[in-house]
UniProtKB/TrEMBL annotation:
Entry's family note: Belongs to the flavin monoamine oxidase family.
Stated name of the protein: Lysine-specific histone demethylase-like protein
Sorted UniProt keywords: Methyltransferase, Oxidoreductase, Transferase
Keyword presence, tRNA-binding: no
Region (Disordered): 212-245, 286-307
UniProt feature, compositional bias: Pro residues: 216-228
Recorded GO MF terms: methyltransferase activity; oxidoreductase activity
Gene Ontology biological-process entries: methylation
InterPro entries found in the cross-reference section: Amino_oxidase (IPR002937), FAD/NAD-bd_sf (IPR036188), Flavin_monoamine_oxidase (IPR050281)
Ranges of residues in domain Amine oxidase: 2-203
Coiled-coil spans in chain: none
Superkingdom of origin organism: Eukaryota
Organism, as annotated: Chrysochromulina tobinii
Amino acid sequence: MDADAVVVTLPLGVLKAGMVRFDPPLPPRKQSAIDRLGFGALNKVLLLFPHAFWEDLEGRRDFWGVCAPTSKRRGEGFQFWNLQRCTGQPMLLVLHAGRAACRDGAPTRDEDAVEATLEYLRGIFGADAVPAPTQQVVTRWDEDPYARGVYSHVALGATSRDYDLMAEPLWDDTLLWAGEAACRAHPATVAGAFISGLREAARFACRMHQEGRWRPPAPSAPLPPALHPHPKPATSAPLPPAFHSCRTPDQSELLAALQKAQNDASEARAEAQQAEARVAELLREARQAESDARRQAEMERAQQRSG
């Protein structure tokens, strides 16, 4: 299959595992960013109960957390989210992070993960107050070969600059990168992944326009059905400004947005090149200083022997 460009949206965990081979290989700066950034495990236990006992005992609250009894169990059930308000159902979403969510530390059976969660709830509210859940769902993203984890994070030795390197296009903007790990402003979020996709779409559209292979639609073009003004809801509550209507931007607005995306990409590439040049210069200076020190030491030893 031939294409003008490819947008890589693979999870960082898949890239770190080397499950995909690039030919030619990725440049060192890109591969180093992949290696430096962390990709953690965070699994969720969703429990549906006969009633919201936590609200009956403690009142309405959005979330709470607990501390594990031992360092070995750190990360187990560290945060509980009350989904009663947003779903209308007596549901709790419980997060298990770190080793408690990894292959070598997580419970091997869903029942064990649920029981560990219930143990914390009984410790908070009392054993008699916590009924058995009627339904349960347990995620295991670390074991998914097409994900190998959940979110990126700045690991030891990494910096936020690595997110910019992850987003940097390669080979004359033919290999583009999107996903939560390619969005410095909003990493580890669905919003960040979505924004990065818009960014790369704008980058590609700008390139096609500059090459004369694509033109924005004329302002008079009819709106597609998905962009027609939103119907007002049955309630009398006013719509937020963002939902009043959708419109097609005129050509000048679209070109300006595309040009800005292209300029931002060029500036990011220039900054990366300057940083690489500076690192190379510092390495040369360090090697020269080491060589000078070695020569000086040899001269001093020679003088001592001759003296």
